[in-house]
User: What shape does this take?
Amino acid sequence: MPARLGRYAVRRRLGSGGFATVWLAYDEQLDSPVAVKVLADNWTGDSHVLRRFVEEGRYLRRVESPHVVPVYDAGELDDGRPYLVMAYADQGTLADRLAADGSDVPGLTVSQAVEVVRQVGAGLTALHARGILHRDVKPANVLFRTVDGTVRAMLGDLGLGKALDVSSRLTMVAGTPTFVSPEQAQAEPLDARADQYSLGALAYLLLAGRAPYTHTTLGAAAAPAPPPPLSTPERPFPDATDAVVRRALAVDREERYPDVAAFVEALEATLDCVAAAPAPWLPLDPELTQPGARPAPAPAGEPPAAGPLPRPSTPAGPSRPRWTVAAVLAAGALVAGTVAGYAWQADRDGEVRLTDDDGSLSVAVPGDWERSVATDGWTPPTGDAAYPALSVGTRTDWNDPATPAEGVFLGLFPGTRLPTTMPQHPECGEAQEPVTETSGDPSTTVVHTGCPDGVTVERVVQVADNRLLWVQVRSDDRATANRVLDSVETHGI
Assistant: This one.
């Protein structure tokens, strides 16, 4: 993890995509957390991608709307990569909210869903008024930020954004299949009604609790069949509401509403719940993303102390499949059981920080996890010598898939490159796609959801040329797993 990006002190990684990584950082001059988006180093030689990245910042700066993420600053790193400094979405994304619910029914009430559509629609209207298309409206690009004690929805990530005059002449085939308009999937010239279609798909998802389509390719999105009825026995809606959403999703753009504002107004008119929306309309969720402590100033001439290892990208929803970790631990010589004399440090949130005997590894965990602590190290299956390791859990056999328990394991082992396969978890519902981070300390992370007792996360990090760090977390919920992962630190390596 970089210590600084320009003048901003880095705290942790918030997420990454195909073209960029977003870091949580602190603006020490203004004493405020910010999000810093940095172009991935493998794209610095691509002039087209570089231009798109810079254009995103310019597009965002042209729009003055509380529902479009603001850009505060821009710069260039020593290696030539550009970066954008934006508002920190301290309440995560809409994808976070939907994934955290973990059930088959929507995670938002009808009034909350309509309010999200209204605020996102306001952001799109502001973009369109400035002659800008978003072209990638989806839950992951709807950000939530606390403003004066209330949650505000903002549109972010204009990586696919285009000026309307350019889009009318040339359109690149890109977008998210479930939400992309047919004309965009076919690379036709675009106008603002393409974003209206995507907002219609988002409205359908939030109201019905399921996406209107399950397209996996842009080819399928180019000629979609009519979606199922909006209403379900659990969430009935007036026929008028269904008709409004279907009009926004019309394959022929000429049949859609003239603009986004007209669609949102028509949707609100069919539902009498909007006026009764509670205040605050969306409750604050302290479990999603936390900025962490303000970084202490570094001594003169020295960079700030290194922060925690990167975290994985936020998953898109509940999922299920694991090598078995029990087999790996059986091959090693990790000492289980409660060990007296371990190092710990109380946290203000009731967490404790624990360190292995060598002082090479540390992690912060909930206080009730320290019932079983092993700090003696282990002999990994890939080596014949002992290496630093740390195991913390709610019971000695916390890593047994059949045991309802929580815990974390950290272990160093020899290796010069990341493994091509990761531990498997057949007791879980689904294994999400591996997330590979190439900047900073390279890492691969796989999140397993739908597990009997929550989530299991596997991560391998290249912490030195000849050393790898294996991290496994079992937790009742993803938020706790994220905090534990964020707190992992190596020392003297």
